[in-house]
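So, who can interpret the following?
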Amino acid sequence: MKYVRMPIELESPEQLGYDTIRYNLSESSVADRRLGELNLKLDDILLCYGDHRGAPDLRGLIARTGEGLSADDVLVTAGAAGALFIIATSMLQAGDHIVVVRPNYATNLETPRTIGADMSIVDLTFETGYRLDLEAIEAAIRPETRYVSVTYPHNPTGVMICEDEMKALVALVERKGTCLLFDETYREMTSGPMLPVAASLSDRVISVSSLSKTYGIPGIRIGWLITRDAALMETFLAAREQIGISGSTVDEYIAYVALSQRDEWLAFNNARIASAFAIVKDWIASEPLVEWIEPSGGCVCFPRIVPSADVDLAGFHESLYSRHQAYVGRGSWFEQDDRHFRIGYAWPTEDELRKGLAAISAAIRDNLKG
């Protein structure tokens, strides 16, 4: 495998330096939390090799977020990114076929490319409201397709599907005899009914999630994959062991404490997200040069500069960062035109969010042509 760094990582705020950005609207999570907020006592943790699948009590908590799942259906990984890497490298060889619904999280595209997989892309578009296109997915599936890759609530648009659409997608992969990779990192961030854990619906579904986005603790690198297919889980476990044997006992303990406080955290986060969302919605309504498909899940949106505006897009992104000290996720992070940009609205303070949105408006006008 020949690795290539992805734009979303090359241009990430942690690589640029957080101290170079005053109004950071590029983050796709709630605000990061400090260790002290968890009221932890770490002195008694034995720094041994842990259970290769992840701590049993942590896996039990994760399993209980879905119906009919057990701890044996869960494999703890180094973030959702680690889970996605394990899945791709375990299930794909050069030439194997997959279907990827795009936009998608960059790893779901780049790792299969690195392996040399044959990818059929099903593009979701602004003009169709980024709605799931089951007919297009079905047309793309071949007898040899290894899996279909989707993410909902959708990253980067925040668009949701309903449970009936989810079940129709699961029924489709079952009928076609393939698998479904369902990246559900934002599942617990929704203003409406929460979708079920996708892997609870079928043994042909692999769910992936983490504590990074919804819980604001990406520093502990805890994610997971869930599958009810025991043979597939054994393969994933073998990959996990060859990559790193087991996870950090410290990280897994912190994750257990955080997930034990799930109800309190989600209530706090949902209130913060709702308040920040209202700010973005008001800005969109008042900004004639920007339009969006209004999100209904997650903590991100993917607006675009209106097509009728003749804007120097490279200049827009450069002046937004260099002149206005604000930052967004470029469309190119998601293999889209840079007229699009991702805004993460739950990470900054409300004052930073308002000033960052004002900076976007100013940077667009700075770069209007003619």
